[in-house]
Design goal:
about 950 residues, alpha/beta, disordered N terminus, about 35% helix, 8-stranded mixed sheet
Length: about 950
């Protein structure tokens, strides 16, 4: 049992699970007095060389005094952390606070000596780097700002740990020892190093789950049927290339196989390593299975068993215990309540899922938190009909179930550098860490398209998911995801539509669309759909119903060669008497024309043209097709999309898919590859679906181009960051959270160059006249009662009062209309130049982070919700984009003959406010309303600021897995 120290209670918040470089996990926690035996055992397993490097002399064993010193910490001036697997130490780190003379010291001394020791068997796994991040965070919490370390010159591994960390360092050499000193404040480089290590480790942890060399299915039944046996059969029948084992506790003495697979009563009986275990036993039996797997060295688990958080509070606690137990052995988990995982790579051929058929290999990565939705997506992507026709293959598929451990963030880390995935499709019912997801999504989207549909948008997420609360509406979260380059869609149909286009075609260079086809009506529908989606279509070219394949080829070639078009939509309806041969000829003509100009996307809108759609996709369904006994044996259909010759960026070639499972239908036809040079074209059954997918690709292409130059955060000379910090500290000393008064608000905003027009209280007409003389005429008289504030339409505002007579008359009118001054709370304010009233807000959301919002004041934002949002910090380009993102933006740019207003000044105001919130996270909410944007300059007429201790930011601390 861990006990408290002599000076501080045991700091449980320092405990954390981390992913190591090789994808395994370890737990980091403080060392306590109860760890004496563990420390001695750990030290006995360290080589003499490592001991020499640690103590600069032969040190075969620890004395009782050493053990006492290394296990008794006050958690302030002396701190020790251990990395553990299976409860045993694999590495330790400690710091001791020192003074200027190098002797032990207490606060306010802000320097400490740090030293590591890593068990030889675990060196090279990134353990020391992870420990350095955590001990550095602990030291900063305890007021330590610098570390010093003395290292022997031959200890290159430890020197590299320090030098690669990215901190600002000073290095010296004296008395045969290298002395390193470095500050602990995060730098751009240290954060970049930390995130690069995070990406490599988390990607590797997912790779171990998706590319195992051996798999054990625990809970496989003796007879076909049941969850475990189904997974075993799927792995066997789809040709898993590694070693496959079945585990069933009820096997008899003479039973050595299940369904032709080597079978055992326990994981412990398996001869050789097991990389992945699929667990399909009742929930109450899972802990024992996890123990067996951990002791056998299994690297990861896919838990398909149900009965966890989705079943209520008891199941939620069972789920937490499962994660803690698995992580203690260094294992990661997909699930529980998972549908499974699939990897179609011909080198792996893993179908560790409940999907009875292996998807065709391709370039699309698929992630679904729901097994049912995952099945629907696989079905829509890989069968003919029921949505977008044609087939595009899958690279990997992950259905995370309750996503207790491995989440969409981890899979994004894997897909980011996966050479077999060109497009990522995700169905999410919750986002456990929106701040991290947005960061990873932005990086992924800069390299490959990421399409997301989110379920449970208007209510609580699934009961099995642990989700942090957010105060932001779904529309705001969606806007922030789009800012990060995510292609947001509303339905799984749109998810598939967009995925097919992005996987098969290049990105459009702009919004100009050529339309051609053999139906004037269908062309006009496509034209209208383009306008509705904000595209710029040319007038449709009607080839008439008599058009031949050659006519389509010529028209498409001409449209693709036209510099005034960025994409082409081909519309086609069946001609009377058209045969399947005609379909094939038309498809060949379109593919040939598109292949000649591969830089522009081509889409087809078809009506009841099954043959054409399949010919265009150059692929067959994964479902076996029965033969017509009365007809000659059919020719092999075209092969999978992934087996075509190399195309553009979105689809390099890969190996063809296997034949369908013979046990399902012995008469199935093995797909054959299409002709060399085939250019795959996505086909859609409705114009609006094709155009919507195209519009999403256009917007994504524009984002990619803009992301190449994200802009910068300008520096302003009149920002007083230190003065603002001192003011905030003084104000927060009064309490945990407060809304600032008028003078304090003006002072804080003024420190960042945001001038607020002061409003003086006017409890009576004489006070109003005195305030006007102080401010200078002309003035405005406003009622600030909650029901009248910012409601000029109700008559609570009088403007352009040029003298005292007009002011007193207006005061009398207000009190006569609305009641006593005590109820109205009138104020007097200097008049600002006329312009457009806007509102600018900043808020720190505990889940999404700091968000800047903008809209027009009044009905546009309050009634219609016409607000745009960006993550803080915003760059100059972000601010310009924010101003132009609202639907009512034309009012700022001279709509219907009005004078354009000073949008550059508005953008500067936004950047300044963003800087304030980014520099001082204690500023948790700011509202500027109204902000009057005139033809020259802006005037902030109202402002409110709320301060509070900032929410914890787990994206800036050391790498950790979500706590359980």
């Amino acid at each position: 049992m861990q006990t408290s120290s002599d000076r501080h209670e045991y700091p449980a918040h320092w405990e954390a699970d981390v992913v190591l470089r090789d994808g395994g996990t370890a737990r980091i926690r403080p060392i306590t007095v109860d760890d004496a035996e563990r420390l001695v055992s750990f030290y006995e397993q360290v080589s003499d060389e490592s001991k020499y490097y640690r103590f600069f002399a032969p040190y075969p064993r620890l004395s009782a005094k050493d053990v006492h010193r290394f296990t008794h910490h006050d958690f302030v001036d002396r701190v020790g952390l251990a990395a553990t697997i299976g409860g045993e130490f694999i590495a330790t780190v400690r710091y001791d606070r020192i003074g200027a003379d190098g002797a032990p010291a207490s606060a306010p001394a802000d320097e400490a000596e740090v030293a590591f020791l890593v068990q030889d068997a675990h060196q090279g796994r990134g353990v020391a780097s992870a420990l350095l991040e955590h001990i550095g965070a602990v030291a900063r919490e305890r007021g330590i700002r610098r570390f010093a370390a003395e290292v022997l010159p031959a200890n290159n591994k430890m020197i590299k740990v320090f030098t690669d960390a990215g901190y600002t360092q000073k290095r010296s050499f004296e008395d045969g020892v290298v002395r390193l000193e470095f500050g602990l404040e995060p730098t751009d480089r240290s954060v970049a190093v930390q995130r690069a290590r995070e990406q490599r480790a988390e990607a590797r942890s997912v790779q171990r789950l998706l590319a195992p060399g051996s798999v054990a299915v625990v809970g496989a039944g003796r007879t076909p049927g049941g969850v475990g046996r189904s997974v075993l059969d799927n792995l066997r029948d789809t040709g898993f290339t590694g070693r496959l084992h079945a585990v069933n506790r009820a096997l008899g003495e003479g039973e050595k196989e299940l369904g032709g697979v080597a079978a055992y009563r326990s994981v412990r009986e398996i001869d050789g390593p097991v990389d992945l275990a699929v667990v399909a036993v009742p929930a109450e039996q899972v802990p024992g299975i996890v123990t067996e797997c951990g002791e056998h060295g299994v690297q990861g688990l896919v838990v398909v068993s149900a009965g966890y958080a989705e079943s209520g509070p008891e199941g939620r606690e069972r789920q937490r215990a499962l994660v803690r137990q698995a992580r203690s052995y260094g294992m990661r988990i997909i699930g529980p309540n998972a549908f499974g995982v699939i990897n179609t790579s011909p080198d792996i051929r893993l179908n560790a899922s409940l999907a009875p058929e292996m998807p065709r290999p391709g370039r699309i990565g698929l992630f679904a938190q729901s097994g049912a939705i995952g099945v629907a997506l696989l079905s829509r992507l890989h069968r003919r009909g029921g949505g977008v026709t044609g087939v595009t293959g899958v690279s990997t598929f992950v259905s995370s179930g309750n996503r207790a451990d491995v989440s969409g963030n981890d899979v994004l880390q894997y897909w980011y550098e996966d050479p077999d995935t060109d497009v990522a499709l995700m169905y999410l019912e919750s986002i456990g860490n929106p701040r991290k997801f947005t960061r990873l999504a932005r990086r992924t989207a800069a390299a490959k398209p990421l399409v997301v549909v989110q379920g449970a948008r208007h209510g609580a997420g699934p009961s099995g998911h642990a989700v942090r609360a957010t105060r932001l509406p779904h529309a705001t979260v969606s806007a922030l995801l789009r800012q990060a380059g995510v292609i947001r869609v509303d339905t799984i149909t749109e998810l598939v539509d967009a995925g097919l286009l992005l996987a098969r075609q290049p990105l459009p260079a702009g919004p100009r669309v050529a339309i051609l086809g053999n139906s004037e009506s269908l062309g006009l529908l496509t034209y209208d759909a383009c306008l509705a989606e904000g595209l710029r279509p040319h007038r449709p070219l009607d080839l008439t119903t008599a058009a031949s394949a050659a006519d389509f080829h010529a028209a498409l070639s001409h449209a693709l060669a036209d510099d005034t078009s960025d994409a082409v939509v081909v519309t086609a309806i069946p001609a009377v008497g058209e045969t399947s041969v005609g379909d094939a000829a038309l498809a060949k003509a379109l593919r040939s024309a598109a292949a000649a100009t591969p830089s522009k996307p081509v889409l087809v809108v078809h009506v009841e043209l099954g043959g054409l759609a399949e010919a265009l996709s150059a692929a067959t369904s994964t479902a076996p097709q029965p033969r017509d006994r009365a007809a000659p044996a059919p020719l092999p259909e075209p092969g999978p999309a992934s087996a075509t010759a190399p195309r553009s960026r979105t689809g390099p070639a890969s190996a063809p898919a296997p034949s369908p499972r013979p046990r399902t239908n012995p008469t199935s036809v093995t797909p054959q590859p299409p002709p060399d040079g085939a250019h795959l074209i996505p086909a859609y059954p409705a114009a609006e679906r094709a155009v919507r997918a195209l519009a999403q690709a256009v917007a994504y292409g524009q984002w990619r181009r803009e992301a190449a130059d994200p802009g910068k955060v300008p520096e302003y000379e009149n920002i007083d960051e230190r003065g603002a910090a001192a003011l905030i500290d003084g104000l927060l000393a009064r309490g945990q959270g407060l809304t600032l008064g008028t003078d304090e608000t003006c002072d804080l905003l003024g420190a960042y160059g945001v001038e607020v027009h002061r409003a003086l209280p006017a409890p009576g007409p004489d006070a109003a006249a005195d305030a006007a003389r102080t401010l200078g005429y002309p003035v405005a008289l406003k009622a600030t009662a909650p029901h009248l504030r910012h409601r000029a339409d109700l008559g609570g505002v009088r403007l352009d009062l040029a003298d005292e007579e007009q002011l007193r008359r207006a005061y009398a009118e207000l009190t006569e209309l609305f009641g006593d001054p005590e109820e109205l709370r009138p104020v007097v304010q200097r008049m600002a130049p006329r312009g457009v009233d806007t509102v600018v807000r900043a808020v720190i959301d505990p889940a999404a982070g700091a968000v800047l919002s903008f809209g027009l004041a009044g009905a546009a934002s309050q009634l219609l919700g016409d607000m745009a949002h960006r993550l803080i910090p915003v760059t100059d380009r972000d601010a310009a984009s924010l101003v132009r993102s609202i639907r009512t933006a034309p009012l700022l740019f001279g709509w219907r003959g009005s004078a354009p207003v000073d949008t550059p000044a508005l953008e500067e105001l936004m950047v300044r406010l963003s800087r304030l919130v980014d520099d001082h996270p204690e500023v948790v909410a700011v509202t500027l309303e109204p902000v009057v944007v005139a033809p020259r300059g802006v005037s902030v007429l109202g402002a409110s600021v709320r301060l509070a201790p900032p929410p914890a930011r787990d994206d800036l601390g050391p790498r950790t897995l979500p706590a359980y």
